[in-house]
Design a protein that fits this description.
By secondary structure, the chain is an alpha/beta fold. It is about 30% helix and about 25% strand. The protein is globular, with a radius of gyration of 19 Å.
């Protein structure tokens, strides 16, 4: 089966690291699947609200901690080294720092108990995470010691997960803070607008239809701010045609917003 068929034939889906709007075939497979769906992401996607049974919002940059919580929640019949790794996790700290409660993962586990075909969708967002090596090792353990079929959207990540033989893990690193105004780079189509919530606009001290500059380190791009009332939070959507068009690396960036003066 290919990845889409695996999703369509599943009866429990859990996803992280993808907003779904950059892959319409993937999005359609979710919308057309009537199984239980737990959507995990830093941004709620209003187009998925009618589809997911649970939304777990986590902090930007906390994907390593999210993987550790998944492993601790769903793993069974582990080897001794994996058991020791899980036992040494400070789950309370990881949960607090990632803003994803342990009870939310327990709720997801409870919802999955009657399922016969579980899928974990791993999005492209983690491939440029600075902790990608440890993240992929934890995902390899999730594949080995849980009931999930992994659907890894990035082929290089998938090969890395499948090829691991040495699964000696590092400790989970302390979460770095991403405060203020953030943008999420959505790859697939060019757009001259920055799509943002009212909250984002208020924090950035700009208004709907304002021309703005988005500043990150030595890069500066011009866009028109468009307030989307269905969005919440302080992360705006920056659509670009190609991955390397602007702001390379991890898809989230802490930016400064500057209004273009007339």
């Amino acid at each position: 089966m290919n990845k889409i068929e695996t999703i369509l034939k599943s009866d429990f889906i859990l996803s992280f690291g993808t907003y779904f709007e950059d892959n319409q075939e993937l999005k359609s497979s979710i919308l057309n699947n009537k199984s239980k769906f737990v959507y995990m992401f830093p941004i709620d996607n209003p187009n998925l609200k009618s589809t997911y049974s649970q939304f777990i919002k986590y902090e930007v940059g906390s994907e390593e901690g999210i993987c550790a919580l998944l492993l601790a929640t769903f793993a069974k019949n582990c080897d001794e080294a994996t058991k020791e790794f899980i036992e040494n996790l400070d789950l309370g700290y990881i949960s607090a720092e990632s803003s994803a409660g342990e009870e939310e993962f327990e709720e997801a586990k409870e919802a999955s108990l009657a399922s016969q075909s579980k899928v974990l969708i791993v999005g492209n967002d983690i491939k440029n995470h600075e902790r990608v090596e440890n993240i992929t090792k934890i995902l390899a353990l999730i594949k080995k010691y849980t009931d999930f079929n992994l659907v890894v959207l990035d082929e290089d990540l998938e090969q890395k997960i499948n090829s691991y033989k040495d699964l000696e893990l590092d400790e989970i690193e302390d979460l770095k803070s991403f405060n203020g105004t953030l943008v999420y780079k959505l790859v697939g189509k060019k757009c001259e607008e920055l799509i943002a919530s009212k909250t984002f606009a208020n924090i950035a001290k700009v208004s709907n239809n304002d021309e703005i500059y988005i500043n990150f380190k030595d890069e500066k791009i011009k866009r028109v701010l468009k307030v989307d009332e269905s969005l919440t939070g302080t992360i705006a959507i920056l659509e670009v045609l190609n991955e390397d068009d602007i702001f390379s690396g991890y898809k989230y960036k802490q930016v400064k917003i500057e209004k273009v003066e007339a």
